[in-house]
């Protein structure tokens, strides 16, 4: 029997490492052309990338802040430092990582996870990747897993150029444009035809600097018939000033390829998480999203699947937990274009202690998507009446041959279930935590064991602390 | 022609979806109505992402505040005695019609009554109607609205109701004609154990547009609401359904249920829907479901083995869908 006391220890994510200025290179706060040029120079961008950044900055200045979602007026870009670089180069051995940074990742359990369960790891600290390694058996299959900077200046430059922000164009929304202007760090994966990466690759993003932004770019190309599982983790210590995360994930799933993209997000509760994730599937391709959102002050997060090829398929399984001071606006989008495409969305949201949860989605079935099928299920659990939980699902169906089903429920923890568990010796808090873990099990059961355990611990922690 | 902003979503979503509201073209000439005052508007709890994009309406309706300023003089109907016989209002419109009707119905404590509105018309024209129903404690009211206007009509079909303790409101709406329909309903369930039920049937064909906004707001403890929509979309008909269950703070043990089933029979039809549940009360139960699809090949095959061809099977299915709603209309109400 699990007991909530297990998580009364401080959260493993809350530790804070004081950064000494001399160990880091920072640009000034704010967003100007000079800052963009400085970032580009510092990163040794090719010329086309500098032009790309400057164009994105122009688009950013022309676009409006979204008027339909949670308020983000506490975020002032003039106070955000968009680039913070540790004065260390990327290495392939934890022993070569500076002690304080290594210590941070040790506390997060990344080196241990790498030894036990991962095929490759990238670790980003503030704006740059500080560690990258991939197992030999993965490399032997021709799989490329490296940091974006190496990819963009190395032999994969043309491949990156052909795909970079093609799926998420800079004019998609204001924060996509911001990302295009100041992006730094992130991972590049290329799986050649037929490659099977049986154990996951992982990137972990840690934002330690107060008042900073993290803008990593993840680009994954899974070629015909290949199969990859990629895990993304992120966390930050809490400060009294706003931090910003505006990452971008672009996933290209080739013919009959399969990609599973799992995320456990636990940003600190001063973070504005304005992230964009999108996948496009060719014929017979499958994208699976597994998403756990626990942290941040405000989130806008809607992983999007574009089912371009006939018989392509997407699944989205997500859980979002909003506690005190959090306004999490999450969900998914699917665009069916090819014939016989299919999609499945299953989400759970849990809200307590004055938190606000919005499940927002759209399923679009274009006239070309003949004989497509879509199913959406969303469940909301309210733990108290100080909180708020909304479901805002949209459907746009433009062929009469499509079959679409949608179901949503909102409810509370059953008093009878809590009473029954308490009669078996559990405390009320432990009983509720167990019920919530069960409610979120569609997500945890899709994760590797270590990550499922981490997610359940996060739920217990949130249930205890809100 | 003038523009009217109507059918606003209670909370906004992506502007790109073009679902947040509708801008309709309506005949010129606005005249504010003298709607009776019923009660103070509740002080709305300011919530994140509920950005007021339209003016508040003291007694809300589905189409929204601009209808209050369009229809002119308001007829007041006070119902103090129960009657099994419905009040019948027939609107037979001629080519070029511009009908505007605003009716305020006050159903007194414990009274049971019903009102039938029947719209038919030839040629082209516009019919705009708004009915607001105030139901005192234990009142029981059934509003039945049948629309069989010809395709040349634009129909603005508006309803709002406010339910006090144990009041019951049933709304049955059948949309069979009019090339352009804007239909909205708003139930404001203030009362303890109040009950609201809406049953709506619609058939869209050719290039018709049907634009819905139905909202059920739960404020009273143990309030219950059900909204059912049965629709058929043929040819290149377009439909958007906004239907919302809104559980406000204090609506302890409230239960809400909404469901839409759409039979899609036109390869160029457009079926859009945004069924929302908004919750700021923990101890509630809300559910919504939406299905959209065509007749299954298995069913068609079964029908054919019984000597029923595809066209006849289609007609049978349409009739069956309409019947699920028309069955709610009491016998004799349409005679």
In short:
Chain A is an alpha/beta fold and 466 residues long. Helix content of chain A is 24%, strand content 35%.
Word description of this protein:
The complex is a heterodimer of chains A (466) and B (335). Helices cover 24% and strands 35% of the residues of chain A. Chain A has twelve helices and 25 strands. Chain A is globular. Chain A is of the alpha/beta class. In chain A, strands 5, 6, 8, 9, 11, 12, 14, 15, 17, 18, 20, 22 and 24 form a 13-stranded mixed beta sheet that branches. Chain A has a ten-stranded mixed beta sheet with strand order 4-3-7-10-13-16-19-21-23-25. In chain A, strands 1-2 form a two-stranded antiparallel ribbon. Chain A has two domains: 12-416, no CATH class; 417-466, no CATH class. Chain B has one domain. Chain B has helices spanning 65-68, 297-305, 310-326, and strands at residues 2-6, 22-26, 74-79, 87-93, 97-107, 112-121, 124-135, 140-149, 152-163, 168-175, 180-189, 195-204, 209-218, 224-233, 238-247, 254-264, 270-279, 284-293. Chain B is globular. The model of chain B is unreliable at 45-49 (pLDDT under 50). The A-B interface holds A 67-71, 327, 329, 356, 358, 360, 362, 367, 380, 382-385, 387-412 and B 11-15, 17, 19-20, 47-49, 51, 233, 247, 249, 264-294. β24 of chain A pairs antiparallel with β17 of chain B.
């Amino acid at each position: 029997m699990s007991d909530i006391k297990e998580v009364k220890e401080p959260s493993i994510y809350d530790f804070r490492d004081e950064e000494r200025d001399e160990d880091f290179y920072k640009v000034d706060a704010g967003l100007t052309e000079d800052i963009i040029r400085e970032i580009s120079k510092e990163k040794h961008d090719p010329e086309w990338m500098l032009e790309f950044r400057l164009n994105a900055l122009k688009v950013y200045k022309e676009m409006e802040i979204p008027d339909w979602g949670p308020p983000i007026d506490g975020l002032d870009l003039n106070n955000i430092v968009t680039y913070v670089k540790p004065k260390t180069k990327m290495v392939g051995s934890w022993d070569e990582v500076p002690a304080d940074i290594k210590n941070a990742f040790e506390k997060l359990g990344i080196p241990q996870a790498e030894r036990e369960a991962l095929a490759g790891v990238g670790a980003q600290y503030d704006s740059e990747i500080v560690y990258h390694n991939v197992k030999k058996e993965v490399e032997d299959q021709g799989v490329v897993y490296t940091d974006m900077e190496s990819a963009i200046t190395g032999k994969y430059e043309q491949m990156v150029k052909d795909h970079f922000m093609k799926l998420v164009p800079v004019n998609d929304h204001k924060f996509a444009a911001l990302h295009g202007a100041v992006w730094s760090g992130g991972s590049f994966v290329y799986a050649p035809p037929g490659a099977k990466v049986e154990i996951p690759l992982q990137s972990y993003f840690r934002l330690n600097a107060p008042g900073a932004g993290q803008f990593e770019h993840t680009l994954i190309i899974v070629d015909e018939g290949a199969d990859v599982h990629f895990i993304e983790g992120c966390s930050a210590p809490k400060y009294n000033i706003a931090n910003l995360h505006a990452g971008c994930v672009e996933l290209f799933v080739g013919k009959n390829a399969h990609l599973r993209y799992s995320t456990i997000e636990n940003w600190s509760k001063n973070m504005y998480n304005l992230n964009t994730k999108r996948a496009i599937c060719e014929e017979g391709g499958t994208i699976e999203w597994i998403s756990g959102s626990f942290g941040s002050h405000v989130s806008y997060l809607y992983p999007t699947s574009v089912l371009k090829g006939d018989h392509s398929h997407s699944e989205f399984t997500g859980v979002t937990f909003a506690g005190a001071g959090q306004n999490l606006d999450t969900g998914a989008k699917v665009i069916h274009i090819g014939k016989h495409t299919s999609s499945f969305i299953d989400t759970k949201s849990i809200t307590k202690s004055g938190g606000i949860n919005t499940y927002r989605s759209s399923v679009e079935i274009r006239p070309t998507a003949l004989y497509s099928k879509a199913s959406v299920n969303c469940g909301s659990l309210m733990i108290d009446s100080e909180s708020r939980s909304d479901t805002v699902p949209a459907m746009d169906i433009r062929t009469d041959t499509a079959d679409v089903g949608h179901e949503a429920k909102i409810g509370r923890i059953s008093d009878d279930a809590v009473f029954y568990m308490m009669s078996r010796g559990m405390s009320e808090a432990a009983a509720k935590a167990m019920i919530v873990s069960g409610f979120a099990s569609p997500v945890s059961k899709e994760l590797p064991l270590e990550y499922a355990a981490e997610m359940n611990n996060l739920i217990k922690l949130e249930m205890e602390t809100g | 022609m003038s523009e009217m902003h109507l059918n606003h979503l209670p909370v906004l979503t992506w502007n790109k979806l073009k679902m947040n509201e509708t801008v309709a073209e309506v005949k010129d000439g606005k005249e504010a109505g003298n709607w009776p005052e019923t009660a103070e508007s509740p002080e709305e709890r300011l919530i994140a992402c509920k950005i007021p994009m339209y003016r508040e309406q003291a007694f809300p309706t589905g189409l929204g505040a601009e209808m209050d300023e369009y229809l002119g003089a308001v007829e007041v109907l006070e119902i103090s005695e129960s009657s099994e016989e419905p009040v019948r209002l027939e609107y037979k419109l001629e080519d070029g019609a511009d009908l505007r009707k605003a009716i305020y119905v006050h159903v007194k404590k414990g009274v049971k009554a019903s009102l039938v509105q029947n719209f038919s018309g030839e040629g082209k024209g516009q019919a705009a109607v708004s009915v607001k129903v105030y139901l005192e404690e234990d009142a029981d009211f059934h509003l039945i609205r049948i629309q069989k206007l010809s395709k040349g009509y634009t129909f603005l079909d508006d309803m709002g109701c406010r339910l006090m303790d144990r009041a019951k409101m049933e709304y049955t709406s059948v949309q069979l004609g009019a090339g352009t329909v804007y239909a909205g309903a708003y139930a404001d369930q203030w009362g303890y154990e109040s009950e609201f039920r809406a049953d709506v049937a619609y058939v869209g064909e050719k290039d018709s547009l049907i634009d819905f906004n139905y909202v059920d707001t739960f404020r009273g403890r143990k309030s219950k609401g059900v909204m059912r929509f049965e629709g058929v979309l043929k040819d290149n008909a377009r439909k958007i359904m906004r239907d919302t269950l809104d559980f406000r703070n204090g609506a302890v043990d409230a239960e809400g249920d909404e469901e839409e089933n759409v039979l899609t029979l036109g390869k160029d039809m457009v079926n859009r829907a945004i069924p929302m549940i908004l919750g700021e009360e923990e101890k509630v139960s809300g559910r919504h479901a939406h299905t959209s699809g065509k007749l299954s090949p298995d069913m068609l095959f079964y029908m054919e083995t019984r000597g029923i061809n595809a066209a006849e099977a289609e007609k049978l299915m349409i009739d069956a869908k309409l019947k699920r709603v028309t069955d709610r209309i009491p016998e004799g109400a349409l005679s």
